[in-house]
Predict the 3D structure of the following.
Amino acid sequence: MRIPTWRLILTGGAIVFLVGAGIGIVAAGSAPTPAVPNSIAAAPTAAPSGTTSPERPAKERLERRAALGAKLLRIGRHLVHVEATVTDRDGNLVVLWLDHGTVQSAANGSVTLTETGGGTQTVKTDGDTIVRVGREDGTLTDVTAGDEVFVHSRVENGVALAKRILIIQAPPS
């Protein structure tokens, strides 16, 4: 059976989009919160064209960033498993996984996820695994059964080693 070219292109585009969204979610979850200055901003001055261009207040920028993060999270919640082969800084091929699911168990140096559709994925952890609880730093002891997580792993010799784990906190009620 021959797969139509349009279907291959559409599938490839979807995979690229999901990898980008997943990496963006992991990066957004692990990015440090920007410091909000305690000083008062100077009044805007006239631009060369004669108009004024006041900068957005810091609070508005943070709100827009939070809204973008919420949109990416809504998109990312549809993610189940992504496998990408990329090159590292030295030009070597590296296999990366991005998994999303609910923690089934976290013990003995590994985390097992239950993914949408009933599949499971087990990844190893070590002392270099970075854990984030929302926007805060965390530890491997923060990863508990029932948590919704995104896990970014590097696969070597068929074994996935978690590099970053992002625990998604439930929205405040």
In short: The chain has one domain: 1-32+61-173. The chain is about 25% helix and 35% strand. Residues 81 and 99 are 5 Å apart (CA to CA).
